[in-house]
Amino acid sequence: MKLHVLPSGPIQTIGYLLTEPATGDAVLIDAPADVWAEVEELLLQDQCRLRELWLTHGHWDHTQDAAKIKRATGATVRAHRADQHLIETPEVMSAFLMPGIKLESVKIDAFLEPGQRLAALGREFEVRHVPGHCPGNVLFHEPQARAAFVGDALFNGGVGRWDLPGGDFATLERSIRGQIYTLPPDTAVYPGHGPSTTVAAEMADNPYVPAARS
Question: What is the pTM of this model?
């Protein structure tokens, strides 16, 4: 499996393209604005077809290219039901959009459930629900690669905003402790913004959610 890290859009939201040339399949995690041009080129390079689009949550910067990608590839769109209104009726986010941002709705083809196992690329990805930044934020954990794609729940040295509609710090803290810090310590954490980190590093040094209360 090849991992392509693709920062894109007005606030450099990261789309993660996973390709498996051996099978010709690919999965995209999140769809920030203008990421499709890069994804299309990489699919040709790796001789893969995009089968799945997994959305970590419904905030506009993670979904801007979703409808375009769905039309171009027919990929199955998966997201958590709690963010259905954000993804399918994105105008509800108009109060906190950047000026000039235009959004297009996309239909969720299949809802993600906590504990669900997704078979893709000859591997199995575990779905974990990590609300607090957004009600439907999920992570995708692939144990073979020791990787977790966490959306905006946890960052390198930070956590996702909890002051947006549907956010709550206490919920976010419980999610991080219960769903991210319980992953193996050497798991690489791939967030929606900024550099990657590891579970061990954030447990040791994250100033918002340290591993244990002092």
Answer: 0.96
Q: Which helix (H) or strand (E) holds 203?
A: helix 199-205
List the pLDDT tens digit at each of the 214 positions of the chain.
999 999 999 999 999 999 999 999 999 999 999 999 999 999 999 999 999 999 999 999 999 999 999 999 999 999 999 999 999 999 999 888 888 888 999 999 999 999 999 999 999 999 999 999 999 999 999 999 999 999 999 999 999 999 999 999 999 999 999 999 999 999 999 999 999 999 999 999 999 999 865 4
3-state SS of the chain is: CEEEEEEECCCCEEEEEEEECCCCEEEEECCCCCHHHHHHHHHHHHCCEEEEEECCCCCHHHHCCHHHHHHHHCCEEEEEHHHHHHHHCHHHHHHHCCCCCCCCCCCCCEEECCCCEEEECCEEEEEEECCCCCCCCEEEEECCCCEEEEECCEECCEECCCCCCCCCHHHHHHHHHHHHCCCCCCCEEEECCCCCEEHHHHHHHCCCCCCCCC
Neighbours of 41 (CB within 10 A): 10
DSSP state of 83: G
Domains of the chain: 2-205 (3.60.15.10)
